[in-house]
Amino acid sequence: MTMVDVLSTAAVEVARRIRARVLVFLTEPPKETEEELLSGTDLTLVVVGPVFDVKNPRLMRLSIPPNLDLESTLNLVSAFLMEQQLVKEGESFVYVASDALGVKTVKKNLFAMNGFFSQAQSVVQRLLEIAIELSIEGREGHPIGTLFVVGDVKNVIKHSHSMLPNPFRGHKINVLDRNSKEIIKEFAQLDGAFIISSRGRIVSAGVYLEVDPRGLNLRLPPGLGTRHIAAAGITKLTKATAISLSESGTIRIFKNGMMLLEYNPRMKY
Ligand SMILES: Nc1ncnc2c1ncn2[C@@H]1O[C@H](COP(=O)(O)OP(=O)(O)OP(=O)(O)O)[C@@H](O)[C@H]1O
């Protein structure tokens, strides 16, 4: 019997006792657990893995950035479960990792819009992962804010201008390449936005987005400043997705002028 087998059996028992409705695997579950669960209990099984799939509503695969710390992973799983109405605020779910078993109670102040998790492609996920690290770590002891605009590069460029010579010109740096992370974090200290292709190539940084919010009918939470208006606005003007990191540590993802996710890794959820 492997460790995951042992933990899985215990997790089913814990779920039964605390009346949890969802069991989350942060690691590949044993095949028998899947079968046993789907026949013997009314638990929903969510497996965090590389593909998103809701074909079987009692056995879901959820794709979130793979290299997050446990707390951020569980927070994003919570957002997904709330979005799917699988748990309500105050309810708990049981999770199994490769060497741990735990219970997480879901709080309400994490916002994810319907469909976010099914849409987020790998480039957006990767930037979310980098934004989470930047939010937690800051840079040289200071909190920093930044903005990534992904996809529809031609149209994004039409609505922007460079504030400095493009440091990425002539370099083929891709956000999906593990080695690019430190470079991105370093250039995130520049004013302005990164422009990134839908395949992950960094086209430029230090870009000012020319967005006039009048007439765009953006529906944003109150109190957001110019970075966030530009982030939401560019996604209304183009087909791009924007990932903003506020100096306060909050990460927001926008598409079609709407906010799809709001998460602050520095906060306790
Ligand atoms: N149109 C824009 N295009 C690109 N970057 C922008 C734009 N507007 C603002 N920024 C960037 O956002 C930074 C912060 O601006 P501001 O404080 O108004 O935004 P904010 O939305 O309140 O963000 P934060 O929550 O981080 O303070 C600016 O210094 C600039 O680097």
From TrEMBL:
Signal peptide: none annotated. Pfam families: DAC, DacZ_T. It comes from the Archaea. GO terms for molecular function: adenylate cyclase activity; ATP binding; diadenylate cyclase activity; manganese ion binding. Its EC number is 2.7.7.85. Residues 109-265 form the DAC domain. Keywords: ATP-binding, Manganese, Nucleotide-binding, Nucleotidyltransferase, Transferase. PROSITE patterns: DAC (PS51794). It is an enzyme of class 2 (transferase). The keyword Nucleotidyltransferase applies. It catalyses: 2 ATP = 3',3'-c-di-AMP + 2 diphosphate. Its cofactor is Mn(2+). Diadenylate cyclase that catalyzes the condensation of 2 ATP molecules into cyclic di-AMP (c-di-AMP). c-di-AMP is a second messenger for intracellular signal transduction involved in the control of important regulatory processes such as osmoregulation. Belongs to the adenylate cyclase family. DacZ subfamily. HAMAP family: DacZ. This is Diadenylate cyclase. It comes from Thermococcus profundus. The gene is dacZ.
